User: Which sequence fits this backbone?
């Protein structure tokens, strides 16, 4: 009987906190939508998100958060905290845009809803014994700011990490492709292309051979492994043997282990281009590898329940793959969710100018509020479920006990 009364009491606390968090989000609807629109109107690309970071930091500072900018030597990274509880719940806010097409991945929606969820949880932080930690994560579309923040220890005290991503539909449970990139440079020797071509070393030929070898390799790569690249420089004058060729190549695979295998095979193709032509090869990792995404089962179920109360039914995507995200690296260390929150995009997919045009629509604005409300709901359930709270706190303690602390749990990058 006593146990039943305790369970009923906890349920009442949970329901009250969910309602209070939701009301806190709704009460700031105007500011959250304005933030989403402002981010959309002033898109900033990777590591240039100075105005975007300042907008988020200012809103949270006004709400009583303790705000730090320029975290982990990233001028556009933000950490804002509220509360003193032992259970630290992180909301990851993205706000970088794509070159030339603005917020074509919907990061204005992502960032605003993460801020909204943080504000919702802050309203109940003291009664639930949690610390709300909004982490502003720059450069997701490029070098992977979350990886740098992870390596700098920003997530060492975090028990659970959450975000939701703009999309054309509501989904839960998907994984993502692990991804890594190289900046590729071949250095040869210039010569007159007609008078003495034999005296030159053709860097463009080296790049061509490597690209051809990669094309042939694709037949032998495991399913789901992708290689794609773009050549940015390959000579200046048609009558001069190209002495310099530059490119960027990206590799994707279903898991980090398969990505490592693909790297070894593709590296051999680049080495073959150098060997065949005599050009010098330089391979420099571009940013950090993104690990495959692992989504927490309980948090996913909680998010589905929350969306259901908002009249949304997300489509389960278990076993299916999204593109790639640096949230994958967080998920290898901290229990994580990264669902998508949908709105009408006229059939347009992310990373297109058409998708960006819907970023200030009524549907996108609703996604900001619904996504924030649902994530706050998940945070409340984690804090009020005795088993889950203990699981998360034990996870933080276990990471600290490992040799090297939390760093020992981080995937190789």
Assistant:
């Amino acid at each position: 009987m006593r146990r039943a009364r305790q369970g009923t009491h906890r349920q009442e606390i949970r329901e009250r906190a969910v309602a209070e968090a939701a009301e806190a989000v709704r009460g700031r609807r105007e500011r959250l939508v304005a933030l989403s629109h402002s981010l959309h109107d002033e898109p900033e690309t990777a590591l240039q998100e100075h105005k975007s970071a300042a907008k988020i930091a200012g809103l949270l500072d006004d709400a009583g958060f303790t705000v730090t900018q320029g975290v982990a030597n990233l001028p556009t990274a933000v950490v804002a905290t509220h509360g003193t509880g032992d259970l630290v719940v992180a909301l990851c806010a993205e706000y970088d845009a794509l070159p030339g097409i603005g917020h074509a991945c919907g990061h204005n929606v992502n960032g605003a809803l993460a801020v909204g969820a943080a504000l919702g949880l802050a309203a109940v932080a003291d009664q639930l014994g949690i610390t709300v930690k909004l982490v502003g994560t720059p450069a997701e579309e490029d070098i992977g700011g979350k990886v740098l923040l992870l390596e700098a220890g920003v997530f060492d005290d975090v028990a659970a990490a959450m975000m939701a991503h703009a999309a054309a539909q509501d989904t839960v449970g998907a994984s993502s492709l692990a991804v890594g990139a190289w900046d590729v440079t071949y250095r040869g020797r210039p010569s007159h292309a007609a008078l003495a071509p034999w005296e030159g070393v053709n860097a463009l030929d080296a790049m061509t051979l490597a690209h051809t070898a990669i094309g042939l390799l694709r037949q032998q790569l495991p399913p789901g492994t992708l290689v794609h690249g773009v050549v940015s420089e390959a000579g200046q004058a048609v009558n001069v043997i190209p002495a310099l060729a530059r490119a960027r190549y990206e590799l994707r695979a279903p898991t980090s282990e398969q990505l490592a295998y693909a790297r070894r095979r593709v590296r051999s193709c680049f080495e073959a281009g150098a060997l065949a032509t005599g050009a010098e090869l330089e391979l420099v990792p571009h940013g950090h590898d993104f690990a495959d995404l692992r989504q927490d089962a309980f948090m996913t179920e909680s998010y589905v329940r929350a969306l259901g109360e908002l009249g949304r039914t997300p489509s389960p995507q278990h076993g299916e793959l999204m593109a790639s995200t640096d949230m994958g690296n967080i998920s290898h260390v901290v229990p994580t969710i990264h669902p998508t929150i949908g709105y009408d995009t006229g059939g347009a997919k992310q990373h297109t100018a058409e998708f960006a045009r819907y970023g200030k629509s009524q549907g996108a604005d609703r996604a900001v509020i619904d996504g924030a409300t649902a994530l706050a709901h998940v945070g409340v359930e984690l804090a009020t479920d005795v088993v889950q709270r203990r699981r998360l706190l034990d996870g933080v303690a276990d990471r600290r006990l490992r040799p090297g602390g939390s760093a020992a749990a981080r995937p190789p990058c």
